[in-house]
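lol ok so funny story. i was supposed to be doing the assay writeup but got distracted and ended up predicting the structure for this chain instead. priorities right. anyway since i did it might as well share w the group, maybe its usefull for someone
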Amino acid sequence: MAQGLRAAGGWTLHGVDTAAPARAAAEASGVFHALTMPETLGPEDVIVLAMPTAAAAAVLPTLAPALAAGATVTDVASVKGPLADALGALPPALQRQVVLGHPIAGSERSGMAASDGALFQGRRVVLTPFGDTAPEALGKVEQIWSALGAEIETLSVAAHDAVLARTSHLPHLLAFALVDALGADPHREAIFRLVAGGFRDFTRIAGSDPTMWSQIFTTNGPALLEALDRFEATLRTFRGAIAAEDGTALFEAIARARATRDAALAESFGEAHDAP
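and the output, tada:
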């Protein structure tokens, strides 16, 4: 976000982190104007909590003085429920200054060295306003995401967590589980010697940060378990068709999945897929 806003111009950027290596990387990047919080905060300021859900939920209540001074607070965490709970504990007047959000973009890499100022261009960001959100606060957050080239959508907290459990959290869980299972397989050496593009594509996200993703799985547990139950039911259907040597059922399921994926990618990314 900081790189993109620095390139857009017109923003004074403060980067704050408790970890010395992160501060050193931020200073070396030259992106930030300062690596401390401003001495005073007011209605013109926006604080972005760029941290996992549990950490953001813990930090949010400590920002009550900044909210009381009129500053806006937003976040980029993957699960909104715990943040909404923390927000609900604040006085209603302060709640109005918080705009929860989540950009639907990223990679398996993390840290300042992996940052990309163009990451959000043409991608979606979901805002989940909570209660009686102040129009001025919402407008500031929308201005930031528009400057970064993102397309803004609005969902409820519950809808966001349910959808992301299916489109992001479940795929990551499956990638981690597959690599973990293959790592314990007696044919492990041959398996990893003979991996092809399909394996690399599917398991790319298994290279993601363990701290962040273990938090995502636990903080969005109910929605993720529901998504996992639905997936397991579909997996049992595939297994049953294989066991029964039912090629017709397998063909129909595979063709249906392919058509669904192509349509979804065309809608989300404008990608066209020709038949082989």
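Confidence is low (pLDDT under 50) at residues 272-276. The radius of gyration is 21 Å.
back to the writeup now i swear
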